[in-house]
Write a structure and sequence with these properties.
Elements: E1 17-23, H1 30-45, E2 49-54, H2 55-62, H3 91-102, E3 107-109, H4 116-122, E4 126-128, H5 132-140, H6 152-165, E5 173-178, H7 184-195, E6 201-206, H8 213-229, E7 236-241, H9 243-246, H10 256-262, E8 265-269, H11 273-281, E9 286-289, H12 296-300, E10 304-306, H13 327-345, H14 348-363
Length: 367
């Protein structure tokens, strides 16, 4: 859910080039974060070179220099610009140019089938196009948790930024991660009732790309009403971040990752496997509200609990847990697939024939 824009990242290593290309997809999307996190770990474990690209990166690199003859490669391979009457540029050509200048990746993680030509021409050994849920299910038999981009270092850094932004928060911090929500009033009343068990407390709402403005606004209003009704003015602070409105300000601080680090308790409204997996990676069990998934296995392990079963007049029941991170497990599985593909390539003519067959199979994973 982190909205901050990141430039293409390259590490000088001797191992394989790993390309994560999310194309026109939303970089704050859980699937985008999942591929990025896997790609980073694969590059690190294989001592490889990591490249991360969005369509906007390609446009900034090439379209802005399309008429600059001094730009590298501009005379020999001018970047394509939209033709009259066309709404967009040919991103496949931009991607091909990037690969020509930066090398051919041996590992590609990308969800977009429309870029087959650019990726096929690079002939990578491993192509991954699965969405998060499919990767977890196919490689691990996991139905609840998914990959992400979070690391202890990132959580710590963003947590420090969050605390610097909100130095006056007092009492336990309850982070409410929002997908969508029904029953604003009853949820708000119970949240406020639990907060009343503390001398002071802070509720921080954090909307996502899937949170309608009216859900965010209605819940915040109901929480404020319930707090006033309970006589908690001065004791309970209600704050938050509306993700969709935050998009209008490119310089706005997205508190999501920092909140995961700083919060004492996490409540998730609605259904999102990414927004369930990420708090667990931060060592925070998750209280669920309005989830259609029962998560029986996670409940048995003490990783999640139902908000409906929490006592209304007692403090929040969750504490800290050992971080749960399946990104590492998925990375290891894909590294094994890559090494098998390397062995096949070294197998001579028979190996090349096998690789050609496997390449077709791997190319359409996730479709």
């Amino acid at each position: 859910m982190q909205a901050a824009k990141e430039a293409p990242q390259t590490q000088k290593k001797d191992g394989p080039m790993v390309l994560v290309y999310i194309g026109e997809d939303d970089p704050s999307r859980g699937d985008s974060h999942g591929l990025k996190g896997i790609g980073q770990r694969m590059a690190q474990k294989l001592n490889g070179k990591f490249h991360y690209l969005e369509d906007d990166d390609l446009k900034r690199m090439y379209l802005e220099n399309a008429h600059d003859v001094t730009a590298p490669g501009a005379q020999d391979a001018p970047a394509p610009v939209p033709e009259p009457g066309k709404k967009s540029v040919d991103m496949d050509k931009l991607l091909k140019r990037y690969l020509k200048e930066n090398g051919k990746p041996e590992i590609v993680l990308s969800r977009f089938g429309q870029y087959n030509d650019a990726i096929k021409s690079a002939k990578p050994l491993l192509i991954v196009r699965d969405i998060n849920e499919t990767l977890s299910s196919r490689l691990l038999g996991e139905k609840s948790l998914v990959s992400h981009h979070l690391t202890p270092e990132l959580l710590k850094a963003e947590g420090e930024k969050f605390r610097a932004q909100h130095p006056d928060f007092q009492g336990p911090l309850i982070g409410v991660l929002m997908v969508d929500i029904n029953g604003y009033s009853s949820f708000a009343e119970k949240m406020v009732s639990k907060c009343a068990a503390y001398p002071q407390a802070t509720i921080f709402l954090c909307g996502s790309r899937r949170t309608p403005n009216y859900d965010y606004d209605n819940l915040k209003e109901e929480l404020e009403k319930a707090a006033k009704k309970k006589g908690l003015e001065g004791r309970l602070r209600i704050d938050g971040y509306n993700f969709l409105r935050g998009l209008k300000n490119k310089d706005a601080f997205n508190p999501y990752v920092g909140l995961l680090d700083a919060a004492d308790h996490i409540v998730l409204t609605g259904n999102s496997q990414s927004m369930l997996s990420e708090p667990l990676a931060a060592g925070k069990p998750v209280i669920l509200h309005g989830s259609f998934n029962q998560y029986k296995k996670l409940k048995r392990k003490g990783l999640v609990m139902d908000f409906g079963k929490c006592a209304a007049d007692k403090r929040f029941e969750t504490g800290r847990i050992k971080p749960v991170n399946i990104t590492e497990d998925i990375t290891d599985k894909l590294i094994k697939d890559f090494k098998n593909a390397q062995s096949t390539r070294r197998g001579g003519p028979v190996g090349w024939a096998l690789r050609a067959t496997q390449g077709v199979k791997n190319f359409f994973l996730g479709f």
